[in-house]
Amino acid sequence: MPRPRWSRSTGVRARPWRTRSHPPSPRSSSRPSRTTSCRSPRGRRRPPRSGRDPREADALATGGDAVGTVFRPDSPQGTPSMKTLSSTVFRSFVILGALLALLLPCGGAHAQDVSPNWFRAPAISPDGSTIVFVHGGDLYTVPVEGGRATPLTLHPSYNTRPVWSRDGSMIAFASDRHGDFDVFVMPAAGGEATRLTHHSADDFPSDFTPDGSAVIFESARINDVDAAVFPTPILAELYSVPVSGGTPTRVLTTPALNARFDRAGRRIIYEDRKGYEDEHRKHHTSSIARDIWIYDIAAGTHRQLTTHAAEDRNPHLTPDERSVVFLSQRNGDFNVFTMPLGAGGENQARQRTFFEHHPVRHLSLSNNGHAVFSWHGEIHHLTLAQDAEPRRVPIQILLDRGDAPVAETRRTGASEFSPAPNGKEIAFVLRGDVFVTSTEFDTTKRITNTPEQERSVEFAPCGRKLYYAGERNGSWNIYEASIADDNELYFFSATKINERPLVATDADEFQPRVSPDGKKIAYLHNRSTLKVLDIESGDIVTALPGTAFYSYSDGDYAFEWAPDSQHIAVHFYNRGRAFVHQIGVVKADGSQDWPIDISDSGYDDNSPRWAMKGGVVVWASDRYGMRSHGSWGAQYDVVGAFLTQDAYDRFHLSKEEYELRKELEEKRKKDEKKDEKKEDENGDDEGENDADNGDDAKKDDEKEAPEPIEIELDGLESRTVRLTIHASALGDFALAPDGDRLYYLARFEQGFDLWVRDFRAESTSMLRKLNAGSASMRLSDDGKTIYMLAGGSLSTINATSGDQKAVAFRAQLEIDGRAERAHLFDHVWRQTKKKFYRPDMHGVDWAFYRDQYAPKLAGVKTNRTFAELLSEILGELDASHTGGRYRPSPGDGDDRTASLGVYYDNNHTGDGARIAEIMEGGPLDKAEFDVEAGMVITRIDGVDITPATNLYALLNRKAGERTRLTLINPGADDAEPFDVVVRPVTLGAESELRYQRWVRNRRAIVDEASAGRLGYMHVRGMNDPSFRRFYADVLGRNFDREALIVDTRFNGGGWLHDDLVTFLTGVHYVDLHPRDDESPEVHYHGDSMWRWTKPSIVVMSEGNYSDAHFFPWAYTEVGAGDTVGMPVPGTTTAVWWERLHTGDLIFGIPQVGTMGKRGLYLENKQLEPTHKVPLPPEAAAAGRDTQVLEAVRIMLEKLDNE
User: Fold this and answer.
1) Start-end of CATH 2.30.42.10 domains in the chain
2) Residues 276/289, Cβ–Cβ less than 8 Å
3) Phi/psi at 501 (5° precision)
4) Which of 482, 731, 763, 1129 has the fewest Cβ atoms within 10 angstroms?
5) Which phi and psi (to 5°) does residue 686 adopt?
6) pLDDT over threshold 70, residue 83
7) Contacts (Cβ under 8 Å, ≥6 apart) of 443
């Protein structure tokens, strides 16, 4: 769903953590103390799941909507989490209490019989005596009867997915010891692990070959040179690697997950993967659900064993190889099923376990018919032959890696900041804590220290107080920290700091902004209602109701106090038009029902700032910049509205006029002071009374009270001025106090740089080269210093010279992972409950699942495991666009495989690597190289490539480096080795080459099959670059084609559906006939000149997601044409992928639904194609694109019949 356009394009927030929000909920104007209410016990009855809209039954009976869509997680933004002041002892008790609460029944219900264990991925030995499983990222073994577990690995890496060799002597597993998951093998009894794979793609083992000589594993590397499979990491291939080492060979170019050989090694049973969906999503029935297949290696044929609309996974052949044991969700929850292997076997599928509420995962089978699996963190054993009940395996863990608190020192990584008014210190937030550092030294004081998150830090005008928001006790609250000792001048050197809550209720209240006079705080209530707190009295008023804004993600609601402390500038949604902001001014006392709209534009206007003592409001606007084609990436300018004619006239003074006026004003001030001095010398009564009031009164008198804000609406439009001379990818900005200079962050090249426009000198120039990926800035009150946060580091910049000085800090952290995850679990649960697009949570008892999963946190030792747990609980919602993600920053020691840009011959044996094809545009596709397909690469940088050599290990960290290849042409008469020096590319660059090749091949198929009559275009994503490529090619190379094939397969979404539908439904209603005496019959295609006016057909598949589901639904809904391919799952919701304050965790909330005209949500409404055409694995492997070929046939038939 669109966010403020300028912030999306830049990734820079004007002021960190400004917010949008939900409709307001009632709240008291006082600050009541927090109380904890106990929930009444709930029974263990199965939670309801229907969640069907009452309108749905009628609509389904009459052929209701059958579609859905979701928005692509584009550059996820998140909110740091909040932490509190506390002593070490107090903090320890708080954490202990939180952990005990996790182990006890929550609210007196549900959790009382839930164990804290989180054991995963069990695999039973071939003889059925031993289980290897995963706990805390390490492998353990335990007898099948249970007992004390023995660790096989106690390694800092994450180790998972263990499988046994057929003789039980070895275990293969995946480990991320080198940044990505690689396959390792080790003795089953323990010992040293040996690395088998060396590629930056994740490799996960699924079986050994029957003779134990090799391991098969799934990995998304590169398809076979002839395959028609779309090049995406979603569709992994199946590989085999010798246990003795060497380069892996491809077994299957089509996806084959959890693949296992039969005893003879002639067949492979596996589960397919058709596209993207979170693997922990539960209860859904759609075309994306996985099915079970069996592959005949000699014949090269695949047979589909299951076709149910629910998920079927983890297949195993029974010991007699006459039946299949698998996991299926066909009866609601994942359970163990068996079925005959022969034809029609699925009709005889039999359920063998009957677990409820949670899925059975990780099925494993021994040679004697013993099965093990995990269920809700526990391992269970089942004897299939005896029709026995499953038995929980009791396991004791006496030794693990633990999760003790870790101390760290950070010198970068700040996410937001606030400079002190005196300029001598800066408050900032780092990893969810508030710190203050000196601007001269690296002396740094930690202000908050709890597992929760703080954000939105701001200095009070006095400089001795800080305000920030903290997520504590089940809600966001607003806190004040102050220096306790009057003899201590600064936070960074203070030894005692007091904290108190200012606003603490059950509602979410955050993003505090203190008024210039320091007496009031504006903040957000439940994300969208703007409220104002009187700090002294505690009175709270509503300045702007929640109906004025919808908060898509925390930090997207911008507002700023006017200098008079009586008005607030906001960006808001006017007249019901969402996601297109307007700029308004509202009174802070709550007396104004709606803002005065000072922008009144159909363009997006956002992020207001005040300047010139309140005479002007400036903001970002896309009204002048280059417009994007597809609702993305418009360029922005800084615009200013001068609220009075006097402010406007002052701004437009020439340099000479400005200097004269400034000199005259200074003279008037001096004259006024002389008059006041004379009055004091005359000893009048007023002067005597003033003297009696002491120093404070004198200081108050010396301060010039700000003038009340005036808005002259007449002529305001003519006083709205474009302040930048060039639109850009705009970041933060600030107008100097006198309005003579505008400072702004803009990206014209790779990163953001600091620019300045001098209005008096009529010049624009770069003030400082930053090349920052993200940045934000603050201008000091006197306009002389710019405070900068760029790339997590702080600095000051001289506003005149541009000289930059680093502000060093030394932030001491103590990271308590267990307590932190307890907070994050609560945050995710509450955030989802508040923002999920349907209040009924799809019929799921959300509190029940909180109570079921919270105790499991005690068994979670790593953030990677925590992300999996989040996916499990979020998966209960049966919704798209959700789940937990673990995304750590790349380590300096991580492997980075480079690519030579070639397809290797998978059938080549012996020394070297034979080239099957050189990718167009790749490193070897150079005029200077005499390299061609069929040649063999025998050495890389002088190292021989033998059957025992892993080719990819030789390409580690070679991207961009001069690399010497030795090649030979075995087909040449005088075959002599020769060398070439190339610069390999990254795997990302290789992926782009493969995609472009795939598109060229589809285009060639269409050209050949239609004899040049039809055009072809693939829509890669729902974004601006994809639309530009689409527009260029459709109205370029395809302009004179009779019809168009629009391929949307494996498009991951975005926001482009309406642009595409509009483009493809143009009407040819006029031609252009210029006079041409030489060729009087010549005429030109007229309007619609910029749209496609001929027939089209859309190709789609199970791999369409999000807006790529919305588009074919809309295309069908308006009758634009037919669709061909496979059904598209209903995934039409808008998502916020929130990055948590740890930095390595992300989770998704589908928070905006879409409804068709029949009043049904599109989410979970599958779209059926007009013409259903599968792409069988045999055809895909052979390069025969059945779906595109059928689209050609249908379209030609339609053209020929017209």
Assistant:
1) 898-989
2) no
3) -80, 135
4) 763
5) -65, -40
6) no
7) 437, 492, 493, 810
566 half-sphere exposure, CB direction, 13 A CA radius:
10
Task: Give the gyration radius of the chain's Cα atoms.
Answer: 33
Residue 792: alpha-carbon gap to chain centroid: 19
Structure tokens at 101: 């609460």
Cβ density class 301-337: b for 16+ within 10 Å, e for less? ebeebbeeebbbbbbbbbbeeebbbbbbbbeebbbbb
CA distance 390 to 335: 11
Residue 988 DSSP SS3: helix
The predicted-structure confidence for 605-628, as pLDDT tens digits, reads as follows 999 999 999 999 999 999 998 876
Contact 1023, 1032 (CB under 8 A): no
Q: Give me the architecture of the 120-396 domain, per CATH.
A: 6 Propeller (2.120)
CA distance 658 to 654: 6
pLDDT at residue 896, as a whole number: 97
Helix (H, G, I), strand (E, B) or coil at 1080: coil
Q: 777, exposed or middle or buried, with CB in 10 Å at 0-12, 13-18, 19+?
A: buried
CA distances (Å), origin 225, targets 200, 222, 228, 732: 20, 9, 9, 48
CA distance 981 to 931: 12
Q: What percent of the chain has pLDDT over 90?
A: 80
Q: Are 435 and 449 in contact (CB under 8 A)?
A: no
Question: What's this model's pTM, rounded to 2 decimal places?
Answer: 0.88
CB 1191, CB 1172: distance < 8 Å = no
For residues 822 and 102, the answer to whether their CB atoms sit within 8 Å is yes
- In CATH terms, the fold of domain 1013-1130+1165-1201 is 2-enoyl-CoA Hydratase; Chain A, domain 1 (3.90.226)
Residue limits of CATH 3.90.226.10 in the chain: 1013-1130+1165-1201
CATH 2.130.10.10 domain position(s) in the chain: 406-654+708-813
Report, in this order, helix, strand and coil percent for the chain, each rounded to 5. 20, 30, 50
393 vs 378: CA distance, rounded Å: 8
Positive/negative CA dihedral, 823, 826, 831, 834: negative
List pLDDT tens digits, range 684-710: 554 445 444 445 444 544 456 788 999
- Checking if the pLDDT of 106 tops 60, the result is no
| CB contact set of 953 (below 8 Å; sequence gap of 6+) | 198
The secondary element (H helix, E strand) that includes residue 1187 is: helix 1186-1201
Cα 952 to Cα 950: distance, rounded to the nearest angstrom: 6
Classify residue 1183 as left (phi > 0), alpha (psi -120 to 50) or beta: left
Specify the CATH number for 898-989; select among 2.30.42.10, 3.75.10.10, 2.40.50.140, 2.40.10.350.
2.30.42.10
**Start and end residues for every CATH 2.120.10.60 domain found in the chain:** 120-396
Q: 1020 vs 223, 590, 1104, CA distance in Å?
A: 19, 49, 10
Distances, alpha carbon 1170 to alpha carbons 1010, 1042, 1056, 1065, 1115, in Å? 21, 21, 22, 18, 12
User: Could you tell me if 195 and 151 are in contact, meaning their C-beta atoms sit under 8 angstroms apart?
Assistant: no
Q: Per the structure block, which two tokens stand in for 916?
A: 């099957």
CATH for the stretch 406-654+708-813: 2.130.10.10
Token pair 């007249």 is at which residue? 575
Please give the Cα distance from 19 to 274 (Å, whole number): 38
* Residue 1011: CB atoms within 10 Å: 8
Whether 31 shows a pLDDT value over 60: the answer reads no
Q: Which amino acid is at 118?
A: W
Give the separation between CA 497 and CA 85, rounded to whole angstroms: 9
The order of strands in the sheet holding 616-621 is 605-611, 616-621, 637-642, 720-722
pLDDT score for 1082: 72
